[in-house]
């Protein structure tokens, strides 16, 4: 009973009409800085800004990890580039946001867990799933210290369901070397589930140290699993629904950096796919993410969201 009383099950989150701005941190799933984005169109934050009439400030960048010290990639990580860029803009007056009216979203992990990182071996051999998920919490802590108070922490989607990490995968633009696809699929499934559970525990432990913060845990894993299992509830294209193929598929010759066969779905057929390519969600999937996150920022009930504080 004492544990139940201690848990912030009463948390109501933000009020309707409270949020007017949102700031994003993450990787290609969230990068809204260019067009077309990694999903072949607009990233989900662009749709959310339109759906909710919010002002968007996007610091997420494609290819990013949480920290290049933990899992190195030659792209702008959250801790090493995105947070410093945000802090610089707030210090020099370029960016002035009312903390009460601003939501901060953090969605990271795809590149930390994937090929050329934890899945195949990080450049930092002591790095584990624990450190990379602690990094996501550290991002939230740094933003809190700078004055941020409203957060949406998006957990990792089921990467084992993407074509890249499926057991039926093929040589593609992200990995065309030899591999055991079944081994990758099983390992990725475990990394994602463990990472999400670790994050949940770390979030609950962090709450007492962040007085006045409103923290929502958004279940990207649950949402994408439901889209995968029940595509008829989410996809609306003119082609047969597909969750095991993608809009822009390129099959490579093994150990060859040149694609041998590419197929691309066009027009309204594209909205029948869960995935844009072997790793990224489709435009239709991103519109679903935007719809759900918009509801959270508007203070509405959302089945994929738990307000922890």
TrEMBL record:
| Gene3D superfamilies, per the entry | SGNH hydrolase
Q: Which UniProt keywords apply?
A: Hydrolase
The UniProt entry, under InterPro entries, shows: GDSL (IPR001087), GDSL_Est/Lipase (IPR051058), SGNH_hydro_sf (IPR036514)
The UniProt entry, under Pfam families, shows: Lipase_GDSL (PF00657)
Superkingdom of this protein's organism: Eukaryota
Molecular function (GO) terms listed? hydrolase activity, acting on ester bonds
Q: Which residues cross the membrane?
A: none
Q: What is this protein called?
A: Carbohydrate esterase family 16 protein
- Please report the organism this UniProt entry assigns to the protein: Rhizopogon vesiculosus
Give the taxonomic lineage as stored in the record: Eukaryota, Fungi, Dikarya, Basidiomycota, Agaricomycotina
